[in-house]
Amino acid sequence: MHASMANLGGGAMRRSPRATPTWSLAWVWLSICALLLGSFALPARAADYTDGVAVSGSTATIWFKSNVATTWVDAHYSVNSGGQLNVRMTYSSANARWEQAVNGVASGTVLRFNFTYNNGNPAYDTPQETYTVGGTTPPPTSDTPDFGANVSIFDTATSIATIQSKLDAAFNGQLLSPTAQFGSQRHAFLFKPGSYNGVYANLGFYTAIAGLGQNPDDVTLSGTVNVDSGWNYGDQGNATQNFWRSAENLALIPNGGTNRWAVSQAAPMRRLHILGNLVLGPSNQGNGQGYASGGYIADTKVDGLIASGSQQQWYTRDSNLGNWYDGVWNMVFSGVVGGPATSFPSPPYTALATTPVSRDKPYLYVDSAGKYRVFVPSTRTNASGASWANGASAGTSIPMSQFYVAKPTDSTATLNAALAQGLNLFFTPGTYHLSDTIRVTRAGTVVLGIGFPTLVPDNGVNAMLVSDVDGVSIAGLLFDAGTVNSNALLSFGDTTSVVSHAGNPSSVQDVYFRIGGAVAGKATNSLVVNSNNVIIDHIWAWRADHGSQPTGWTINTADTGVLVNGNNVLATGLFVEHYQKFNVVWNGQGGRTIFFQNEMPYDPPSQAAWRADAIGYAAYKVGDSVTTHEAWGVGSYCYFNVNPSIHAAHAFEVPAVAGVRFHSALTVSLGGVGVIDHVINNTGGAAQGTATVPVNVINFP
């Protein structure tokens, strides 16, 4: 809806009956132009504005603060169930914002509002928001916020002994601990710009290490950022449970010239400059032990050699490498300068020269004045190489005063009130229990977590819903299903839409979903994408096969990990495991996946209990009506340890049409525990036998 002529000026104008002044005609003409432009308004731009509601006594002031050259703003609002009012807002010089007062409000009054504004000649529409008077209001924000007790911030004046003591305490508290993998501990270690000599960081569960420079080389650590086998209780011989840790936005000069990063799922390495070599396998690899199970690197530069070692699969995006060595089953590269060429399956390399669409994860940094900001990198098309390799990354810097810094004690009402005020959300480490859905309605909103903040929906609520708007970034979160079934943990759009977001897509990055393990969690779906053009950049959706609490077929239940109904959605780094039906269902047209890693559920008790009308569920299902879809570097494995006689008819189920294409697909039976009869539809032989040998399909069809 846009402003009507009756309300455009915000009040009646008194005119002489005999003459209309020239300035009045001009004002009316400009108003008509604004109205006409509003009739064809474009979606709001992400970084253009903030907005909200300020209440004083019985007056609520709807406000709009522009970050661009705005000369007029129209408010469209309703009070409770009343009709929509459309008014030209008044600019307040004292508050440096556009305002519209609503008088006579009381606690419980519901305001629904959105805006039309200009930025040069076009007009732009913002999405509708809702504000309830008397609801929870978050405290003031700051550019130097308190990040809480679980965040340690170091500068060059901090002694190395102090830094090392904090790093060691966090890791040693988890060493051979039977509870650490599903514990409540959360750690973020942040380094302000400068050089730090002699830092030896062993990273355990739920531990993040990051630099606070605007570019990786602003923070240099000399030492190690180490992940190895031998420390995790119950899995000392392998690195297959080295989950939930991260390293970001710093330069590393490795001790001895080589750094070790032997991780499995949910352990990204982003925006690093490694001035030396990198080894991705554990120190004990070989002789039937020392396995590692996959990982992710993006926007990174490694000057020397990368040896993948015992890594079964790996995905590297938009990076610069000196040389890549090794490969087990599935090594995938897109936009990697210095990476290997496609040679799948021997060596098992799949390479795309560029990444079709990518936007790197937002990150926290500190500016020259000591103020904290979040940098949101720009979207890149056909990207190749690290975004900062030839200069600073392009993007937008947002002051922390435009974020609400969340603590685990915050209620869901507080978080939603912050979003309704036009703030972004910054989650500090800890566990958050949600009594309601977190609702992200404003275009361009950033929801960013550090130190693996964990969101637990209580009483069966859906954890987070993102409206069908442009440019929302959701990053750095762990969704942990509650004990009462949720229909979905994170959704983009509540229904399918025809709106294109190609010019400013939303993204979900380093976001993890866990069904069971810490509690007997339940969720029908983990990630649901109804919006178009969303970028899914490194997620791990995991129905737990083990935990500190019991897991099993009827205990931690979950149908589907990723459900895509939107068109032109791109997944770069898709890890989805153990769901009880199709692990991925892709119904949207024009979908693309670059790298997929999957294990089917371990625990079907019988063939009929898993599925009565077919031979199991495929790991990855492309909808029957889809005519265009493409995937590169996709693998699915079975390990039916509850009933080794279980079969799956195939790992990938797709329509047999020319526009649906798969490249470098494989299946594996781990130790011959169960069988996958075919790779894609009826193409490819059976994965079976104790030799654990992949069955490969180079191209389909």
UniProtKB/TrEMBL annotation:
Protein name: CBM56 domain-containing protein
PROSITE patterns for this protein: CBM56
Pfam family name, one: CBM_56
Gene3D superfamilies cross-referenced by the UniProt entry: Single-stranded right-handed beta-helix, Pectin lyase-like
Domain spans labelled CBM56: 43-133
InterPro entries: CBM56 (IPR047569), Pectin_lyas_fold (IPR012334), Pectin_lyase_fold/virulence (IPR011050), SACTE_4363 (IPR059186)
